[in-house]
Write a structure and sequence with these properties.
mainly alpha
């Protein structure tokens, strides 16, 4: 079983958070996506696509119960 671990840490001061938010809001969406892509490549290596996974689930048909009022 996987142990659940919670770590508390300081988030930094509010002015730093506001500066980071203002910085990223000043960038265009293309620049933001480019930055995320750069971080993804650092973590996962250079690949053209992320791995995709799909699962097909077949459900049993359910019986529909209808109540008839007398």
């Amino acid at each position: 079983m996987i142990a659940k671990v919670v770590r508390k840490g300081k988030r930094g001061n509010i002015s730093e958070v506001k500066e980071n938010l203002a910085f990223w809001l000043s960038k265009t969406p293309e620049e933001r996506v480019s930055a995320v892509e750069h971080l993804r490549r650092q973590l996962h290596g250079i690949s053209t696509r992320l791995q995709r996974s799909a699962r097909v689930i077949q459900l049993r048909p359910r019986k529909i119960l209808r109540t008839l009022k007398p």
